[in-house]
Specification:
elongated; four-stranded antiparallel beta sheet; alpha+beta; 32% strand; 249 residues
């Protein structure tokens, strides 16, 4: 058995295809692309932010070969969609044929039908072929009026150094977000009634970029009322908490 490690001939690493272009190329070479569910194709076309492809397994013997590839798209809701591609030439001298399937069980069934010599086994090893420059989201996002949530968060911020108009304009395009309470260094003030809370508001933008705003809620005010401050970084938010706490120590 011999396995080619030069997968660059299959998916050039310098390629800058969009997720939609990658899907079109995959479907264009697959003999059975018409069998794919319309909903699967529509999810990629409407919701894909990034993709990657990897060699899943390979079987080479006596001039015949069979490889399987995993193609995965990152969708706008943070989930992933995978298609499985089978590439083979089971007749000497014939050009490689491509088939695509929506799940791994269908792939196994199709693979079992191929007339490959039985005396060797597949070589299985994930190999990165192409990775979009867009990273996978760090958060489990929820699409729920996210742009309006960002607007309301900025509106209630009382600190003079709150995020600027450029940040607000970017967040006006947000379509998903997650709120996480942050924990870290404790802050104690001299007045028992003074308390602090820190929250990360993470937003996902249409191009896959992520922006976080850090909200400090506290009662370190002359009359003990609740106050909201918003910062563009965690360090800035924690520094603000320390300054406020020092006023009551």
């Amino acid at each position: 058995m011999s396995v080619p490690y030069d997968t660059a001939a299959y998916e050039p690493p310098e390629s800058h295809e969009s997720p939609e272009e990658h899907l079109a190329r995959l479907l264009g070479r697959a003999l059975n692309s018409f069998e794919l569910p319309d909903e699967t194709i529509r999810l990629v076309l409407d919701c894909a932010l990034a993709y990657d492809s990897s060699l899943h397994s390979a079987h080479h013997c006596a001039g015949l070969h069979r490889e399987t590839y995993r193609h995965t798209w990152l969708l706008s809701d943070g989930s992933a969609l995978t298609l499985w591609e089978l590439v083979h030439n089971t007749v000497l001298g014939r050009e490689a044929q491509h088939e695509v399937y929506v799940d791994e069980e269908e792939l196994r069934t199709a693979t079992a039908r191929l007339p490959m010599p039985p005396d060797t086994t597949d070589f299985e090893l994930p190999v990165l072929v192409h990775l979009s420059p867009i990273p996978e989201p760090r958060h489990a996002y929820l699409a729920d009026n996210s742009a309006d949530h960002a607007r309301r968060l900025l509106r209630r911020a009382e600190n003079a150094d709150r995020p600027d108009e450029e940040t607000a304009a970017l967040l006006a395009t947000a379509f998903a977000h997650q709120i996480i309470q942050a924990f870290g260094r404790p802050y104690r003030a001299g007045r028992a009634a003074v308390c602090f809370s820190l929250y990360e508001h993470a937003f996902l933008l249409p191009d896959g970029a992520e922006i976080s705003l850090w909200e400090v809620e506290h009662t370190a005010t002359p009359d003990g009322r609740h106050m909201c401050e918003v910062y563009v970084s965690e360090d800035a938010a924690r520094d603000a908490m320390e300054r406020r706490a020092a006023q009551f120590s």
